[in-house]
Specification:
This protein is an all-alpha fold. Helices cover about 70% and strands about 0% of the residues.
Length: about 170
């Protein structure tokens, strides 16, 4: 069973498969001029609409703040694990600044030892969630369920339950 056909090179096999040429990486990365014009038109609309600032703010959030101490304190909250370290980091932050409108930070504040701090965080979360649903709500929902099921303060449990219903 010998094959009398000439053996094809890898280049020929690739050309038959997808029409590519060996070493032609530059040609593949160049856009069709019509598509390039479409991309440019979309970018122009984005910049002219003024929404680019909203997108940048959404991406970098509080990192755009020029206060290095605030950034350091937020990082301490983000890296803290456990009720004690979280409470200490949040208290240090609140000595200098009000609670931020950052869902990730507020989820950490829900682990604070002081129920008044937890209530403050829930109040701010209610405002944020009324405007738009949080992007990463799993940790928030988990923390609210924990408060609802194990919290000592009836008002705190009730507000956690109401916020859970709002998120569903």
């Amino acid at each position: 069973m010998s094959d009398d056909r000439p053996k094809r090179s890898w280049r020929e096999i690739d050309q038959m498969r997808d029409g590519s040429r060996g070493g032609g990486q530059r040609e593949r990365t160049q856009l069709d001029p019509r598509r390039q014009g479409t991309y440019r038109a979309k970018l122009d609309r984005l910049f002219s609409s003024g929404k680019i600032g909203d997108l940048v703010q959404e991406r970098i959030g509080d990192a755009a703040d020029d206060d290095p101490l605030r950034s350091k304190l937020l990082a301490a909250i983000a890296s803290a694990e456990g009720r004690g370290p979280i409470s200490k980091a949040v208290d240090a932050y609140l000595k200098e600044h009000p609670l931020p409108r950052d869902v990730d930070v507020l989820v950490k504040v829900l682990q604070h030892r002081d129920e008044d701090r937890q209530l403050e965080a829930i109040a701010l979360l209610e405002e944020i969630c009324a405007e738009e649903a949080p992007k990463r709500a799993r940790s928030l929902i988990g923390q609210l369920k924990l408060i609802r099921d194990t919290g000592d303060d009836p008002e705190l449990r009730q507000r956690a339950e109401a916020l859970l219903e709002q998120l569903d």
